[in-house]
Write a structure and sequence with these properties.
Elements (H helix, E strand, L loop, with lengths): L2 E2 L10 E6 L2 E2 L3 H9 L6 E8 L2 E8 L3 E2 L11 H11 L9 H15 L2 H10 L11 H15 L4 H12 L15 H11 L3
Antiparallel strand pairs: 1-6, 2-3, 2-4, 4-5
């Protein structure tokens, strides 16, 4: 639930992936099944067709932490919460603890349990810095939670948003998700913390 293997290559809209790993790709669902069944770090040969020309491209699959949305009406948050609690067992194949905690915080955000969200996010100590989902993502959501709590937490929220805005490569939800920095900068401007 917390990791998804993204494909590190995007084809132009006029292109079509026709085969991968020896299997025909008949649509997005077929491509997703191939990616889901392939371990991160594996090099996969993909045949791409553009007009009459075909080309084989080798793609290395990677893994990306995924953070659930705390406002998706199609999610059943109680089931997600139970699943995350079970995943946080220390199993070597499970998602890193900080990813599970970040998703647990998202479930708590959905419930409006802002004090618990702040506590959970402040407990995250091992999120990586730099590109993708990581510490700046944690700081951004911490700023959101502190802002929701009370005006007395405004200085702490501003500090969290400043840390988040300082990382230009950070992302929300997954490593190809929306950028954190512009959102954090907008929140800073709203709070007068520029």
């Amino acid at each position: 639930m917390s990791f998804s293997p993204p494909v590190a290559y995007r084809t132009p809209i006029s292109s079509a992936c026709t085969t991968s790993a020896g299997a025909d790709i008949t649509g997005a669902a077929a491509a997703r099944r191939i990616v889901d069944a392939t371990a991160a770090g594996t090099v996969v040969a993909v045949q791409v067709q553009r007009g009459a020309a075909t080309q084989v491209v080798e793609i290395t699959l990677g893994s990306s932490p995924r953070v659930i949305s705390f406002s998706d009406p199609d999610l059943v948050y109680s089931v997600i919460s139970a699943s995350l609690a079970a995943e946080h067992t220390g199993d070597a194949d499970a998602a890193p603890g900080w990813v599970v905690q970040l998703n647990q915080a998202a479930v708590l955000m959905h419930a409006g349990a802002w004090e618990d969200v702040v506590r959970m996010l402040r407990d995250i100590e091992d999120a990586p810095g730099g590109a993708g989902v990581g510490q700046a993502t944690v700081d951004y959501w911490l700023g959101i939670a502190l802002t929701a709590l009370a005006p007395t937490y405004r200085p702490s929220a501003i500090d969290a948003f400043r840390r988040a805005a300082a990382d230009p490569d950070a992302r929300l939800f997954h490593n190809d998700g929306p950028w954190v920095a512009p959102r954090a900068a907008a929140r800073l401007a709203d709070l007068g913390g520029r």
